[in-house]
Amino acid sequence: MKMKSVKAFLSIVTAASLAVSAPAAVFAEDAAAQEAEAQDSDGEATAEDFTIAFDGGELSVTNQTTQTIKEAKLVEAAADDSEEADNSEETADASKEAKMDLVLTEEDGTEHTFQDVTVDKWKDAVLVNSYEFLYINYKDESGKDQEAAETAEANTLEADAAEGNDAEEATREEE
């Protein structure tokens, strides 16, 4: 009798677990499908990849951001007078290689500049967005992972005040 009651109990438990797990699996599948649809409708999909043309050919860049790049062009790097010419061996190496500035233009006209890049030596380039700054992750000639960061303009409180962009002053003018 003990054996029959154990078998009956196990049968009931098995039937109950099947009854509960089947609807849970269907619900989980529906939830995953709804989440995928929500991501598509939010516009969080990545934008199209783009290419950078240079003297030695082209480089295809994978775009993992939501920003659509309309144009990618290389321009000659502006000479920087703040560095000392006889500083180190690094300056001699830099003068041997022609470094360029990469300018990415979005559809809305916003420009993002990457200074002193050597695009011809990049492999597997990927454009990423981190905290509203663009980065290009790539592998160099030796296969090491490298990163080129967007050049940002340095804004200080003194510079903003000199330009008349003082927040307190602007609120006083509004009153």
Notes on the protein architecture:
- This protein is α+β, with helices and mostly antiparallel strands and 175 residues long.
- The chain has 4 helices and 8 strands.
- The strands form 2 sheets. Strands 1-2-6-7-8 form a 5-stranded mixed beta sheet, with no helix packed on it. Strands 3-4-5 form a 3-stranded antiparallel beta sheet, with no helix packed on it.
- The termini are far apart.
- Mean pLDDT is 74; it is low at 81-89 and 91-96.
Supply database-style keywords.
five-stranded mixed sheet, three-stranded antiparallel sheet, 31% strand
Short description:
The chain is 37% helix and 31% strand. It has 175 residues and is of the alpha+beta class.
Radius of gyration: 29 Å
Unreliable stretches covering 5 or more consecutive residues: 81-89, 91-96
Q: What structural category do the secondary elements indicate?
A: alpha+beta
**Count of strand segments:** 8
Walk across the major sheet and give the strand order.
Answer: 1-2-6-7-8
Beta-strand residue percentage: 25-35%
Helix share bin: 25-40%
Distance between the first and last residues' Cα: 90 Å
Biggest sheet character: 5 strands, mixed
Shape: elongated
Order of helices and strands: HEEEHEEEEEHH
Mean pLDDT: 74
Q: Helical segment tally?
A: 4
Task: Lay out the secondary structure.
Blueprint: H1 2-42, E1 50-54, E2 57-63, E3 69-76, H2 89-96, E4 100-106, E5 111-117, E6 123-130, E7 133-139, E8 145-149, H3 157-163, H4 167-174
Parallel strand pairs: 2-6
Antiparallel strand pairs: 1-2, 3-4, 4-5, 6-7, 7-8
